[in-house]
Structure formats: C-alpha cells, structure tokens
Specification:
Elements lengths: L1 E5 L8 H12 L3 E5 L2 H14 L3 H22 L5 E4 L13 E4 L19 H11 L4 E6 L10 H4 L3 H9 L7 H5 L6 E5 L3 H10 L2
Parallel strand pairs: 1-2, 1-5, 2-4, 3-4, 5-6
Helix pairs in contact: 1-8, 2-3
C-alpha cells in the first residue's frame, strides 16, 4: 500500500489533475491523505477573530481535511474510489485501488501533543502511513523543494532534510521528531515534478 499526501492548497492548481490521472493509470493500491487547504486557512483566521482554543482549531482543521478529501473524490469520478473512515476498512479488493482517508478519527475530546499548530496534515499523514504499514509516503507540495539534484533519491527524506524543510515551513514543526520513528521511505515532491512522481509510483508495487 502506498500513501500519498496531497496538500489542500493544490486544489486550485491545474497540474493536480495530471497527478490524479497518473495515480489512476498506474493502478497502484494507494491511500490519498488530504491536507486542509483553504478550509484550514479559514480556521487559522477565525481562531484569531473568535478566540477559540487550539483543541477546537485542531478539530476544525481535521474536518477541513475531510472537505478536501471529498473534493478529491469528485475529481476521480470516472474511477472507483472509496473514502475510508478507519484504517482497518482498507481491503485488498480488486475493485478498488484508490482510497481517500477520512480523518474523523483524529478528532480529539481533550488536548494532546497533536492538538496545536505545530502538528498539521504532514505529521498526521506520517502517523496514518505508519498505522497502515505503508511501503512509502509521498508528500506532494505546491512549492519547489530545495534539492541539489533533480532525481528521486534527492527527494528522499533523511533526518537532516526533514529538519531543513521544517525550518523553512515546507513541513510542519512536529514532523522531524515524528520522522525519526519512521521505518519506510518518505519523499517530498513538488507539483511541478510530474515525471519524477510517475517514476516513484513505478518503483513501488
């Protein structure tokens, strides 16, 4: 099973359509983990105005991810795609290759280490990928990813790169610590790197 985290800010990017087409065409079993996009941005803005706490902001941001998930599902209307609420709903049915993760299980009733703005959908995607024993996590971003070379290996994270990307706000603040416990490869790729994305999918069954 492959995990693909799609930043919610990519919904307005025309190149996302090509990425979704590649995901369908390659027929890999995968879970799409949505970001919160403009919906999460609204939560941030309204928290400043309405003065609700970080626990409430976290839960509203989780619902933002769900909204993006439904929009992604709408973009894949001609192909069988299933929204799953809990990870044990993932099956090996030949009828379904693409799952979209429903993040409602991340809604919390009390504060914990995840219920703040240091943890966003990036770290949540890492957590979910670990739960489903994913072979790989591919994080697609709207921005360019600093790299000395333009190949897949240069996009593979190590601890140093995770810290660097967190410092420049490409990954969230909690990500480097969570990444230290990661046993599968993680790649961070730009929406402008369609060819490299296709190669990555073909490297994993």
């Amino acid at each position: 099973m492959l995990s693909i985290k799609i930043g919610g800010s990519l919904l307005g990017n025309r190149k996302l359509t090509n990425f979704l087409k590649i995901i369908v065409q390659e027929k890999r079993k995968c879970v799409l983990i949505p970001g919160g996009g403009v919906f999460a941005d609204t939560v941030r803005q309204q928290q400043q105005e309405l003065k609700f706490d970080n626990l409430t902001a976290h839960n509203l941001s989780v619902l933002s991810m769900l909204k993006v998930g439904y929009i992604l599902k709408d973009r894949i209307t001609k192909n069988y795609c299933q929204i799953v609420k809990i990870t044990n709903q993932l099956s090996h049915s030949e009828k379904c290759n693409i799952y979209i993760w429903n993040p409602e299980q991340e809604i919390c009733s009390v504060k914990n280490i995840y219920t703040n703005w240091s943890t966003t959908s990036d770290t949540i995607a890492l957590k979910v990928s670990r739960q489903i024993n994913s072979e790989v996590l591919i994080i697609i971003k709207s921005c360019e990813i600093p790299s000395e070379q333009k190949n897949n290996q240069s996009l593979k994270l190590n601890e140093r790169k995770a810290i660097e990307l967190s410092k420049i706000n490409i990954l969230d603040k909690a990500f480097p610590h969570a990444f230290m416990e990661c046993l599968f490869p993680v790649y961070v790729i730009s929406i402008n790197q369609l060819k490299l994305f296709k190669e990555l999918l073909r490297n994993f069954q």
